[in-house]
Amino acid sequence: MAPLDDAKPTTVTDVRGPDGHPLDIPRLACGAMADLQSFPAHVKHNERLGYPGELIDDWKEVAIAKIGELADKNRAFQVYLDACVKCGACTDKCHYFLGTGDPKNMPVARQDLLRSVYRRYYTFAGKHFPWLVGARDLTREVLDDWYNYYHQCSQCRRCSVFCPYGIDTAEISMAAREILDTVGKGQKYCNEIIGKVLDTGNNLGLQEKALRATLESLEEDIEEDTGVSVRIPLDEKGADILLIAPSADFFAEPHIEGLIGYAKVFHQAGVSWTVSSYASEAANFGLFIGSYENMREVSLRIRKAAQDLGVKRIVFGECGHAWRVGYSFLNTLAGPFDFLDQNFPIPQHILEFTHGMLERGELNIDKSRNDHIRLTFHDSCNVARGSRMGDMPGGQFEIPRAVLRAVCNNYFDMDRDTIMESTVCCGGGGGLLTDELLDLRTKGASPRMKAMQQVTEDHGVTHLAAICAICKTQFAKVMPKFGYDMDSILSVHQLVSNAIILDGQETNNTSAAED
Amino acid sequence: MLSTLYAVLFYFATILLVVGTGLKIRKYARTPAPLKIPTTPAPTTRSGVWLRMFREVVFFESLFKANKWIWLFGYLFHFGLLLVLLRHFRYFTQPVWFWVEIIQPFGVYASFAMVIGLAGLWARRFLVERIRYISAPSDHLMLVLLLAIGLSGMGMKFVAKTDIVAVKIFFQGLMRFQINDLPTDPLLLIHLGLVASLMIIFPISKLLHAPGLFFSPSRNQVDNPREQRHLAPWAAKLEKGGR
Ligand code: SF4
Ligand code: SF4
Ligand code: SF4
């Protein structure tokens, strides 16, 4: 091996087994993921969002013009296109590169797919000496490469932590997807889902009636389990708190267990709260396609729901990207929220709420009810690198851990280089949580899974807790490929729910509520 | 004749450097950042952001986290270059500023650091396959250019000394718009020619990373979106269009 070279010859295809460090660098495997294609959006999905239904005739001119427009509208895009020095510091930071070895999944190479075209049409050097600066004409192959590789980025921002200029490939990815949408080359998964939110209020397309029935049956489950009547109200005017949860919390496992956890915490807090059927979705896929307008429209539903229901506070459930949009963008997109109670953060994260109650000793917790679990925690990228909880920088790491330690006796962190601000993505974020990308998702999950396998070896860790709807779904799907059961993934509030003893709850039955 | 040519070259290069970089900075400053996107954890106050930038500029903090080799070579190069540049103030000031006198001896060693750093960075472009993959010809050439500037400068210091007093008179003259005689040693002419080309390409190349760093939203934004509403002018217009 060449000196000064930190690459190790690991087999790219073998994702099983705890051999090697989670962040081991593969040798380059050119073209390894070149044929992977996310399904293109249907005409009606594109048109619903205001984009051309299919690839337009003058796509080339429109795409080039759009690059210029975005560079004028978004400083990050402009600066990031110019500032990269090709130092290579980010080359080994992307979990998709680590998992696939495909060089186009190295963050800088992913940026270069677009940067090379920007240089060709917008810079002096690229116009006159394209070969010198790696500038390329925009061709159909380049456009297809964009579609392919910008849908192999989960927009997790891990690369931006390590870049000396903070260049965030997620921003480039989002811009690229917006350009693709503008010429009629949208992705099915994202665009179909955004259409559903705009039509029904949530990503699943759930109607109000179905939602109401689900929530009622959950109330019954809780009562059966605990003997206490805990409510999950829907569309209740005049409630204090509007809960904005990812719609997966209403239907998917282990998400539902988390929702039950929120309900129990609110119940113990004695606050009045409600879910809204109009804004029954925390996730905002407008982010993934880099569309300010779509992201804004989805966000405005939350504002309208809060106004119509006359609530005083907004609390977000467990969802990574949702919290990034909620924490970092909601005030921009749908503010100002002067009609809400200014004594509370707007919006507030459910973990901030629960953490506050635990700190004040207002929850009755029996930690031993989680003793059958040896736990570790996956920092969701968008919470870790795109938002905060609490008053201090880094609260997004401390608060979930403080809550987990308060409700569970056996907690162990994974390798420091794979958690907190350096957390490696679950592999399914950013609009990639779709079946045709399963191969990519599995490979992208391998750094995280290797880090988990390490703590399983060292500390006997059995379960992984997460605070993101996408992460949870993704892990439930890929963990079996790495030797774990699909129910090894837990919601953080599921652990809270297990350990909480409600006022009046019968506790002679000590078997934990987990299964 | 030669003196006039170099005089014109340096005026031209200076104008391009100042105007070109100025225009770029103006473009960066005028382009709005529509959303709050600091890479978190991020400082929650302005002064905290200044501290973060300070650590990035002075210690290359993120690069250190990322890769110790690149950090080491990058650091040797940049701080070598800084000292060498400061040392060059002696050719433009009369009397020479006292702090330039103080760093004078270090500046000489710094040139070694600079050249070693550059050589290391260049070696990585060949030896590490990931970096080989992302390197365009211009990435190699930029390092060659800087190396050649460093080596030709060191050559004049350690091998074939030039009439440095005459050089100083030439540049002091330029600052007063008079053209004095420039010595004609080949090393000096090469050195100055390369420096002028570096100044010319600065605003149209990746050397823009220098001003770019200060405008990078992921580094220069305050983490306070819940407390303070952030709104880009074009987004405000969008809102007026109806909600
Ligand atoms: S944002 Fe994440 S997924 Fe995208 S290139 Fe960077 S590290 Fe990879
Ligand atoms: S770390 Fe930043 S500057 Fe270096 S190659 Fe990657 S994106 Fe470019
Ligand atoms: S799904 Fe979770 S881990 Fe994956 S990118 Fe989103 S927040 Fe990150």
Of all chain pairs, the largest interface belongs to: A-B, 79 and 68 residues
What is the number of strand segments of chain B? 0
How much helical structure, as a percent, in the residues of chain A?
40-55%
Low-confidence stretches of chain A: 9-18, 510-515
Count structural domains of chain B. 1
Roughly how many Å is the radius of gyration of chain A? 23 Å
- Judging from the principal axes of the Cα atoms, what is the shape of chain B? globular
CATH superfamily of chain B: Transmembrane di-heme cytochromes, Chain C
Rg of chain B, alpha carbons: 22 Å
- The second-level CATH architecture of chain B is Up-down Bundle
Q: Residue ranges of chain B: pLDDT <50 for 5 or more in a row?
A: none
The chain-level mean pLDDT of chain A equals: 94
**Can you summarize the main beta sheet of chain A?**
4 strands, parallel
What CATH calls the topology of chain B is: Fumarate Reductase Cytochrome B subunit
Helical coverage of chain B, percent range = over 70%
